[in-house]
Amino acid sequence: MSEQAISGAAQGAAQSAPSGIQLQLYRLGKNLRTPTPYLMTFGIFLWLLTYYLFTEGWKLPRFEKIPGPVEVVTEFISTDPVWGTSLFTEDFHTNVYVSCRRIFIAFCIATGLGVPLGLFMGWSRKFRDYTFPILETLRPIPILAWVPLAIVMFAGFETPIIFLATLASFFVTTLNTLLGVRSIDEAYFRAAGCLGSKKRHVFWHVVVPGAMPFIFTGLQISIGVAWFSLVAAEMISGDFGLGYMINDSFMVNKYVSMVMAMISLGFVGWATSAMVRWAGNRMMQWRVRALALEGR
Asked: Are residues 267 and 126 both part of a single domain?
């Protein structure tokens, strides 16, 4: 086969490959032809129905003090809320903004430190021998055990909370990145060595792309863990945020506002995880295309 024929075939394959938007539309249409989205919708409806029956319909024991979905939604969209907090009040938006800002800072710090550390730990056995025992000693310590130390180390409300969220996210990010590097097939390293690649080229063109799926899986987990830690820290040492709103509402028996904050936390956490997944799909188009061709 001539070089022109090979070049023409390559160009034809590149043109026939679906673009990012076309690929997403293709996968969306394929998913709509499966029972998965309809089962998900039915599951959400079933959960809401059970929640309504337990709290407002049957008023079962241990559920009579919990506000039902109708009461929560009515208060949430009210312009004149009975309990003082709704979608239209400034304090609600302030709490959501403060928590999101803290998560953004903590997640960026944890990613900026954890990903390079995990890459080098997986890349260099000697570096891993020095650092892995320290990581495994500190990782099992619960985040709440760090709260007194964080308050002693840092002044004010903001820095201790960001430190705790960063710490939880950091361990997850580092460990998943390390596992990603160690999961790369040795054949890739041997092939790169036979082709005369230098160590830095192997690192950038074999180690980093090979660990990408594990890295973004770890980032999705780490941002969820960061939310867990953030809310716990805001309950103990905070002046604003969704965690502070939950604890403050509980202390003054504003259970409707407490449930509103919990639901808001679920939606915001889901949105941030979706953003991480979107970023991962954008940076790993080759993997998204491969999964689409496999029908996944």
From this structure: yes
Does the residue 207 lie in any domain? Answer: yes
Output the average pLDDT for the chain.
85
Interatomic CA distance for residues 259 and 57, integer angstroms: 18
pTM of the predicted model as reported, rounded to 2 decimal places: 0.82
Determine, yes or no, domain membership for 71: no
- DSSP reduced 3-state for 155: coil
Helical H runs in 195-241?
A: 199-202, 208-236
Of 66, 84, 100, which one is at a domain's C-terminal end? Answer: 66
Contacts of 85 (CB under 8 A, 6+ apart): 75, 91, 92, 245, 249, 254, 257, 260
Q: Please state, in angstroms and as integers, the Cα–Cα distance from residue 57 to each residue in 41, 42, 72, 120, following that order.
A: 22, 20, 14, 57
* Span 38-51, pLDDT tens digits: 888 899 999 999 99
pLDDT of residue 156 exceeding 90: no
Residues in the chain: 296
Residues 93-111 pLDDT 10s: 999 999 999 999 999 999 9
